[in-house]
Write a structure and sequence with these properties.
Number of helices of chain B: 2
Largest sheet of chain B: 3 strands, antiparallel
Number of domains of chain B: 1
Structural class of chain B: alpha+beta
Oligomer: heterodimer
Structural class of chain A: alpha+beta
Number of strands of chain B: 3
Distance between the termini of chain B: 32 Å
Strand content of chain A: 25-35%
Radius of gyration of chain B: 12 Å
């Protein structure tokens, strides 16, 4: 029986988290949105033998999508609104480690920004930044302020 | 120079986000772009100004830009 490590992430938006997980994918296969459970109420996680674990999470990737002989991965909302990752020690050693979580945090930032930009109706383009290891880059365009109308002086001399 | 206002966000692999803005006048920069800082996290560095014409002397004395993490 493997043990769970609690890795605190700085993630607060559940929809952006799901989008980031789809974008990043697993260590052994791609994930579709249907591979990721997103619940209002926290659900139990299960181990590789189908044993119910005490850990619960709102966002869950079931073990068959995590990898061979893997355990469920979950993200549980904390009292302060952030999500905590529940990843077993076994799966941490197979690639779901701080590096994977770091990339997830990066993609979360991109997806969260896109949600906010879409809500404001702002236009943007996404590229990669070659100067920083081809990390994601968003360029956002704002409307230029309208020039003030000229006021004619009808009463001038 | 009448540059159209824009914002560039670079999402680094270490989890920090670099935010750089161009073409805003006066308070419009903070007023129109602070929402993204509020959405992404807490600033980890002081807000700094960078010369819009890429003035190397100015840049040399203003290392870094506002960051969110």
């Amino acid at each position: 029986m493997s043990h769970y490590l609690n890795l605190r992430t700085n993630i607060t938006d559940q929809e952006a988290l799901v989008r980031a997980l789809v974008r990043l994918g697993g260590c052994f296969n791609k994930w579709n949105k249907s591979d990721i459970e997103s619940h209002n109420a926290a659900q139990n996680l299960y181990g590789y033998q189908g044993d119910k674990r005490p850990q619960k999470a709102q966002v869950v990737i079931r073990r068959q999508n995590v990898g061979h002989a893997a355990n469920d991965i979950g993200f549980e909302r904390q009292a302060d609104g952030t999500f905590r990752a529940h990843i077993s020690e076994y799966d941490t050693g197979r690639g779901y480690n701080s590096g994977w979580l770091g990339k997830l945090t990066t993609y979360y930032g991109v997806e969260k920004a896109k949600i906010e930009l879409d809500a404001k109706g702002l236009k943007y383009t996404e590229t990669t930044d070659a100067k920083n290891g081809n990390c994601p880059r968003l360029e956002v365009f704002f409307e230029a302020p309208k020039a003030k109308a000229k006021v004619s002086n009808f009463f001038g001399g | 120079m009448n540059e159209k206002p824009r914002m560039v966000l670079v999402f680094k692999w270490n989890g920090t986000v670099n935010k750089e803005t161009f073409g805003f006048k006066g308070k419009a920069c903070v007023e129109q772009t602070k929402f993204i800082e509020d959405a992404l996290g807490t600033p980890v560095d002081e807000r700094k100004w960078k010369h819009e014409d890429n003035n190397p002397y100015f840049d040399a004395h203003n290392i870094g830009n506002s960051q969110t993490a």
